[in-house]
Each structure stands twice: as C-alpha cells, then as structure tokens.
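Hi support team,

I've been running sequence recovery on a batch of backbones for a student project. Most finish fine, but this one hangs at about 90% for roughly twenty minutes before it completes. I'm not sure whether the input is malformed or the queue is just slow. I've pasted the structure tokens below so you can try to reproduce it. Let me know if you need the job ID as well.

Thanks,
M.K.
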C-alpha cells in the first residue's frame, strides 16, 4: 500500500486459517458437515474452506454503545444447503454472547464454544430449500470493530466507530460465515446517536429518527460480496456528493472542520473510474462508491465494497500532500472493486489476485498522472522489493507466508511482464475475459491462466510455473566482447538464481541493444533459458560500440551483474532513451572515485529532470567539497522537488558554512519533512544557534506532529523541561497513534517517566491498535529494568479503572516480562 511517516502501511495480508471444531460436532450429530480446510494434494497449499450451504443474504441490525464498546444486534442469514442434507451448521462468533437462535422462525438448539456457534436443527436441512437463521446477540469486540476517541476525557479526540473485516475481524461483532469463498447480498441497519453520520455498504435506503435521540440508518447491497467486506463507519462528517462521467454516485466523506482537505485528498478520484473501464473493458460494477477517513486506522486503507475506509493520515491539505498524498492508496482501493470485490479469490493463499492487480493498476494510473519516468521508477522499486524478498528466501507468490514484497510488489511487476510479453492490447482482452466470465464470483489462479488459453489460444504454463508457482529470481551475469575489425558483437550471459537453494533456471525473452558511437543501435530479442547463452549481433564493419543495454527499460524482475567501464556508463547515462537505464548507469558509478566522475555527474545534474535520478547524483557528489560540488548542492537545496532537497540535506556529511544560510531558509520550507530534516542537520552541525532555530519553527506541527515533537525534544535538551509536559500530552489518547508513538519513543530515549506518561503507556498497550500497543510495550519493557519506574507503572495500573478486555491485555503484558522485570 503506502508508507506514512514512521509507519510502513502493509494493508491486509490475511493470516493463516484457524478452525476450532474437532469435538464440537459430537454434541450435534455424527454426520455433521464441518467447516474446514480443503488442501490441494499436489501443492500442499490451503485452497479453500469447505461450507455445506450457500449463503444468499445477510441482514445485520445493530445498536452500538461506544462508551461501553458493545454491540446489541440481530443478524439473519438466508441460505440454501449444498448437500443432500445438512445436520448442523457452524458460524464464526468469537466471544459473542448468543441470546437466542431461530431457524425459519422457530427456536433452534445451538452450542457456543466462544469461537464458533453451531446450530443443531431437530431435522436435517435439505437440498434445494431456502432457510433462514436469526441470531440475537451481544458483543464486546476486542477487535474487528474499533471505538476511537471515546476514552479521551479532554474531548479533543475525534469520536468514531469503524470496522475492519479483513483479517477475520467481523467475526468479533457479527456471528457469520467469516471466509471469503462464499458471496451474498447484505443489508446493514445501525442505530446510533443522531449527532453522528453512519456509513455502510451499498445504497442508503432510509434514515429514521427515533424519539430517544438516536437515528437508524439502513444500507443495502444489491450485488453479492464476501462477508469480510461488510463495514460500518461512524463519526462527525460532511459528505461531498459527486457523479462520475458515467453517472455513478460518489460520496467523499470529510471532517467538517477541514474542508480545505477535500480537493487535495480526493484529487483525480473521478478520473479513476473511466481509467479502470478503459483498462479492463468493464465499467465500475457497483451502484455507488463512498470513501471515509478514520482516525487510528491500523492499515493504510481497506476496499470494503462500495465504501473504502482509509487512515486520516491520508486526509491531507496541499502542504501535507507534498510529503504524502492519498493518490496511490485511493486508486489501489478502487481497483479492488474489480479485483477482490467483484471477482474474489477463493482462499487467502490466492491473495495476489487481489493485491498484485490493485498495485499494478494503481501504478498504471500514476503513469497517466505523472508520466513515463515516474512509472519506470515505480516498477524499479517493485523489482528491488522482489529482489530483497528473494534474498531472504524463495517462497512462491502462492504462499500464505509470501509477504508484502511478493504479494503487492513482485506480483504487480509480474503482471507488467505478462503485458510486455504478450502485448498490451492482448493483455487487456485477457483481463476483460477473466472479469466478465466470473461476475460477482470466486476465482483462483487457474481461472486467470485459462483466460490466456481462451482469449489468445496459448498456454503460458512456462511463465506461471516460473513466476507464480515457484520462488526465486533469475540472476544474469553479462559480459561482451567486440573489436573494430569484427562484424559481430558477442554478448555472453550466464544465468543462475538469486538464492542458490533454487536450482531451476528461468526461461525469458530478453531484449538486447547495441549502441554505437554514431548514435545508431541494433537490437535483438532472444530467449535466455540455459545456464550459459551467447548472443551475436551483426554490425556494419568498423562501427564502434558505445554501450550495451541488457533488457532496456528493465521489464524483467532480475538481478544483473554487468561490469562496464566508466566511458560505457557515461555514454549510457547520457544517451539512453529510458530514464531507468540512465539511472542504472549513474547508480553503477557509485563505486568509482568522485574525482573521476565529478564533471560528468555535475553535467548530468543540470541535464536530468527526474527527481530520483538527480537525488542519486547528489548522493554521489556529497563527499566532495570542491566549489563546483558546493554550487550543485546549493542548487539542490533550492530545487522544486522535495526528493532532491531531502537528498541534499541528508547526503552531506556536515553542512558546510557556505551552505548554512540555504539550510536555515529551509526551516520555513513548504515540506514538513524538509523542515524536520533541516532542523536536525542544523542542530548537528551548528548547535550554537539552537535558540534561533527553535524560534523559527516554534509553531510548526506537520503530520503526526512530527516537527513539534522534534522541537520539544530539542527544547528539553536546552533545559526547558516544560516541553516534557507537551511530549507527555502527545502520548495520550487525545492524539492519533502516530503522534503518540513518536512522542513516546522520544520520552523513552530520554528515559523520562511520570504518572501521566505511565497511564498513557498502559492505555496504549490495552488498545486493539496493534501498532500502538506494540510500540508502547517495547517502551514499557525499556523501563522494566528500573524498579522505581516499573513500580510507578504497576501502581498506575492498580489505581486505574479498566474494562475486562483492557485488564486482560495488560495482565498478559506484565506476565510476559521476565520475573525480575516487573513481576513480583
């Protein structure tokens, strides 16, 4: 997904499936049909979850008490058996108190073991019938449904309720079939305080005012979806309602006190719908679309059908958008409404059918907005992420442990290779067939494979075997030889794999270009599949080779060892038509002494326009202290690109005196990240002017209060302890979890603790936000070696009131500490 300040957003990689029914059905019937795993005997992968009925409709009706964190509800499931008879039926329901259960309107016996609730009808359910089951229940969900801001006694925090279903969260607040391989229509009815707004999936059918100061919102979905995509979002919001050119209603939710953030946050949203129609040949397949920002969202964003939820760290104004905008996450989640919501993978192991496709099309949309150079850079980053993952192990894309780098990044690059190999228009036809053959249905990788067979009349088994079903990546060792008297250029390619544990070789078509000093070039495409391959390129006698490109524009995920001389690298960096090939040449100069490349790099800096390429030049020039380099550094500090300015700020070992005025001006930069970085560098290099620097940045905040936290940290070092109170306040529930984590880490580094901070640490550990809880646990463990501080933390724990869930989480934390660190 995306990255936020001090936080990597890696949204929604599902965990391993867990099923807890080995003995339960003994109490119902010896012929019960257990919901369980189906394993592919060839691959050993968990392919799907068995279910004896087809769920047709789910109607949820809930009333929420946010102060108690409780849900009182009813849910009615309508379904039809898939077997001749079904003796019992189990639903996921974690720690939900089931008050009553009614089958077809009549009470039915049920067993609730705290993980699953199983109904035991007096007579079997029969094939070709339609049945309904209604649960009346109460839940106090420890996760899945989140109550944010209600524990803030100061009233500063936004008060919200929002859900996160993927990752098996909905089973904590709805008794349901909580697996993705069955799809149903839904309706959600929510009763809540009438001062708030409520969002759920589908179209808003009605809003009813109740006499007790509440309203009841009723939403309905007319097309089927998987139950993990059911959502609710509640808070104080305004709604900006628009329509796409094709007439789809789009509702953009926003904070009423931050209307200036609507345009920069949702910029280009309407364009995305037509873009996806052009790319897939299928118009947006749902009736409406909404987006809602929420506080403390534990991921980046989530593609709940027709109602995307995203962390309000993406709800940015124009200035904050310089450091991080919502564009990529925005299009990523919309793409899921084709890949993930419309066609849904049968099992989590097929997650690449969701995330790789969403990442791929988001990258294509950014190409439309930002251009070819930006697109090449995104693809390069994907390939580097895939390489990093391959060096750690050779898991295939189809693995529950594949991880973010493979499921998102590598998978996206793989789709790009398919489009490159078979052609963009052919690939589009395959995608259209794949989607339209499974409307609102379930798919697996074989369905995608069969689309190639049907549309193009080919069987790309070789590609799927190499890139999807197997792990590892190709490693190419490239050399070449030539002479002015020869009519041939010979390129030698030796192939191995990135991880030597993988013995298979890759079969891939590779483009090769031989560029000559006269500006012309010859090109050839050849299949490389052996351990050693020689490629010969005929040429006109007497032509001199300037440089050679192996896989120009870098279409293939690979590691490449290609030794080249400085003149070759300079020629490639000067004249290669693709930015990424010029970047490759500059990057390859990194090990060359600065003096040998100085003039060339300075010349390229003035010629190039792409920020990352200019930043790489700046990094390589930084060790040099000549006046020519200082002049380039000064220009970089004044560059219009945040990327280039940051590169100049961070690359210099120390800020030289001639550049000090330029860096001081950056304390008022448009980018908050640049301000924070320049403040750190100035403190490191010229601490005699701390008071001056602090005065210039006194009222600057930034996302996650990043500048203010840094400011107060420095101010404490100057002896102004009143800043400690500000830092402690930032750790409280009045602030978002990023602010809390950043401030708490600063206080932890200072080894500072008081009762307020101790209370904030405990409250954070007790939350369902695993990022906040994990960071605060680490800080508490840091204090655990100090008896005085640990006793303070334990006293605050004893003297405070906690809910049962909070108390359980805190006791679990204390029990995890070594006996001599925090335990009596």
């Amino acid at each position: 997904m995306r990255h936020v300040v001090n936080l990597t957003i890696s949204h929604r990689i599902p965990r391993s499936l867990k099923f807890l029914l080995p003995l339960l059905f003994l109490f119902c019937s010896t012929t019960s049909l257990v919901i369980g795993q189906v394993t592919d005997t060839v691959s050993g992968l968990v392919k799907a979850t068995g279910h004896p009925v087809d769920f047709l409709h789910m109607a949820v009706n809930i009333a929420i008490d946010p102060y108690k964190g409780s849900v009182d509800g009813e849910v009615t499931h309508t379904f039809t058996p898939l077997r001749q008879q079904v003796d019992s039926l189990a639903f996921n329901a974690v720690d939900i108190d089931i008050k009553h259960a009614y089958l077809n309107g009549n009470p039915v016996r049920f067993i609730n073991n705290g993980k699953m609730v199983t109904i035991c009808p007096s007579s079997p359910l029969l094939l070709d019938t339609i049945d309904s089951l209604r649960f009346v229940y109460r839940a106090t969900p420890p996760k899945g449904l989140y109550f944010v801001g209600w524990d803030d006694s100061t009233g500063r925090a936004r008060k919200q309720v929002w859900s996160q279903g993927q990752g098996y969260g909905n089973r904590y607040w709805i008794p349901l079939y909580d697996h993705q391989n069955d799809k149903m229509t839904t309706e959600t009815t929510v009763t809540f305080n009438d001062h708030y707004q409520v969002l759920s999936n589908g179209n808003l059918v009605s809003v009813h005012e109740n006499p007790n100061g509440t309203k009841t919102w009723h939403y309905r979905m007319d097309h089927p979806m998987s139950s993990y995509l059911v959502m609710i979002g509640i808070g104080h919001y305004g709604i900006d309602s628009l329509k796409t050119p094709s007439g789809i209603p789009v509702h953009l939710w926003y904070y009423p006190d931050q209307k200036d953030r609507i345009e920069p946050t949702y910029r280009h949203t309407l364009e995305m719908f037509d873009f996806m129609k052009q790319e897939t040949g299928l118009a947006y397949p749902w009736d409406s679309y909404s987006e809602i920002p929420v506080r403390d969202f534990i991921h980046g964003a989530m593609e709940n059908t027709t109602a995307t939820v995203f962390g309000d760290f993406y709800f940015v104004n124009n200035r904050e958008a310089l450091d991080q905008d919502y564009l990529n996450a925005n299009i990523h989640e919309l793409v899921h409404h084709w890949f993930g919501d419309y066609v849904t993978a049968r099992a989590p192991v097929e997650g690449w059918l969701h995330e790789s496709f969403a990442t791929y099309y988001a990258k294509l949309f950014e190409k439309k907005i930002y251009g070819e150079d930006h697109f090449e850079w995104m693809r390069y980053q994907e390939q580097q992420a895939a390489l990093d993952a391959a060096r750690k192990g050779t898991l295939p894309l189809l693995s529950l442990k594949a991880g973010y780098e493979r499921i998102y990044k590598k998978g996206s690059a793989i789709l790009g290779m398919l489009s490159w190999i078979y052609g963009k228009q052919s690939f589009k036809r395959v995608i259209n067939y794949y989607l339209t053959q499974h409307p609102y249905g379930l798919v697996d990788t074989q369905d995608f494979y069969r689309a190639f067979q049907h549309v193009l009349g080919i069987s790309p088994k070789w590609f799927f075997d190499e890139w999807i079903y197997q792990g590892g990546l190709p490693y190419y060792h490239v050399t070449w030889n030539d002479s002015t008297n020869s009519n041939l250029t010979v390129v030698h390619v030796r192939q191995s794999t990135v991880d030597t544990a993988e013995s298979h070789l890759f079969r891939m078509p590779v483009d090769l270009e031989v560029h000559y000093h006269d500006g012309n070039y010859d090109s050839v495409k050849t299949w490389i599949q052996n351990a050693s391959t020689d490629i010969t390129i005929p040429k006109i006698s007497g032509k001199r080779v300037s440089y050679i490109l192996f896989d120009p524009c870098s279409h293939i995920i690979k590691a490449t060892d290609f030794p080249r001389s400085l003149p070759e690298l300079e020629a490639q960096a000067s004249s290669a038509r693709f930015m990424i090939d010029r970047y490759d040449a500059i990057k390859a100069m990194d090990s060359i002494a600065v003096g040998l490349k100085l003039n060339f790099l300075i010349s390229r800096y003035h010629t190039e326009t792409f920020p990352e390429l200019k930043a790489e030049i700046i990094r390589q020039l930084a060790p040099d202290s000549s006046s020519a380099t200082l002049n380039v550094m000064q220009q970089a500090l004044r560059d219009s690109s945040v990327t280039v300015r940051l590169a100049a700020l961070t690359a210099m070992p120390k800020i030289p005196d001639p550049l000090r005025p330029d860096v001081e001006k950056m304390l008022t930069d448009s980018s908050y990240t640049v301000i924070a970085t320049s403040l750190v560098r100035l403190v490191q290099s010229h601490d005699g002017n701390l008071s001056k620097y602090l005065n210039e940045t006194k009222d600057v905040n930034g996302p996650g209060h990043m500048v203010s936290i840094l400011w107060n940290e420095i101010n404490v070092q100057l002896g102004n302890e009143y800043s400690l109170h500000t830092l402690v306040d930032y750790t409280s529930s009045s602030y978002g979890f990023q602010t809390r984590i950043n401030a708490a880490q600063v206080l932890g580094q200072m080894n500072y603790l008081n009762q307020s901070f101790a209370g904030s640490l405990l409250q954070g550990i007790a939350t369902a936000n695993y990022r906040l809880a994990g960071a605060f646990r680490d800080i508490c463990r840091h204090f655990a070696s100090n008896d005085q501080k640990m006793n303070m933390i334990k006293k605050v724990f004893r003297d405070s009131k906690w809910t049962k869930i909070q108390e359980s989480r805190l006791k679990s934390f204390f029990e995890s500490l070594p006996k001599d660190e925090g335990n009596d």
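--
Follow-up from support: It reproduced on our side and the slowdown came from queue contention, not your input. The two ends are 43 Å apart (CA to CA). No action needed from you.
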